[in-house]
Write a structure and sequence with these properties.
The protein has twelve helices and no strands. The protein is an all-alpha fold. Helix 5 (about 95-115) runs antiparallel to helix 9, helix 9 packs antiparallel against helix 10 and helix 10 (about 200-215) packs antiparallel against helix 11. The chain starts with a helix and ends in a 6-residue tail after the last helix.
């Protein structure tokens, strides 16, 4: 974030600029409690609402006597190197998506050896799946991100082909990337976060993933009731709380153990 050096001489102006520009960036990219919005420019309704939300949360912390949460500087340090998969450590991306990206990248060398591929590009080409799917799974984006091309890696069959080529169970990959976004998919923005069942299309996809998990048996099948409760709206799925992502994160942990990737 660029700040003019004359502004840095004034603490109040520096904080003002930081808050203002942060709202632009969060509106554009999303992260944490917030999803990306289309109207993140100055003098737009979405941007003004985001600034108001910032102020309300800061006032709440002030009233409660709490401080801002600590941010681990490690991801930012890695990001500065611009590694090809730096988004796998981007704190604005849900933890479950970051864990999936690391699982796929950690498993990649073994998948290349097993399939006789020389690179990830060859592995993806062998599946005939659009490469944007692999890029999104290994370079995940915040909830609400909409790629320019419209590719969101949502097709279960295509994700399954990539997962199988990587040696990872397909329902685990699909759920790990998509569960965190399913409550808002197919809904108007003003209904996001409200209780109730997810859309029919999403419930169908979740049911298919649960069928595949049942075929795998425990420990995978043990998470089916929790997934069904989320899709039916029995369990709330607020956007500012990621505890309901736990079934997908537990499935990732089970895959790491199966693939012997759980050891340092």
């Amino acid at each position: 974030m660029a700040i003019h050096r004359d502004v840095l001489a004034d603490r109040h102006q520096t904080l003002l600029v930081l808050l203002h520009e942060s709202a632009h960036r969060v509106g554009h990219r999303g992260g944490g409690h917030w999803t990306p919005i289309p109207d993140y420019h100055d003098r737009s309704r979405g941007f003004e609402h985001l600034l108001s939300d910032f102020a309300a949360r800061l006032l709440g912390m002030l009233a409660d006597g709490t401080t801002l949460p600590h941010i681990d500087p490690t991801p930012a340090a890695r990001r500065a190197g611009r590694d090809r998969n730096w988004r796998a450590d981007d704190p604005s991306v849900p933890a479950v998506r970051r864990e999936l990206a690391h699982l796929l990248l950690d498993q990649l060398p073994q998948a290349l050896t097993d399939g006789g591929f020389r690179s990830a590009k060859e592995l993806v080409a062998s599946t005939a799946v659009y490469p944007g799917y692999w890029r999104l799974l290994t370079n995940p984006r915040p909830v609400g991100h909409r790629p320019f091309r419209g590719d969101q890696a949502g097709d279960y069959d295509k994700v399954a082909l990539l997962a199988e080529a990587s040696g990872v169970h397909p329902p685990v990959v699909w759920l790990a990337y998509h569960l965190c976004e399913r409550p808002i998919r197919g809904r108007r923005r003003d209904t996001w976060g409200r209780p109730g069942p997810w859309t029919a299309k999403i419930r169908t996809d979740i049911a298919r993933a649960c069928t595949d998990l049942a075929a795998l048996g425990d420990p995978y099948a043990a998470h089916i009731p929790a997934l069904q409760a989320l899709a039916d709206g029995t369990v709330p799925a607020p956007l500012d709380d990621d505890t309901w992502h736990q079934p997908a994160r537990a499935l990732l942990a089970a895959e790491r153990r199966r693939l012997n990737l759980d050891k340092p």
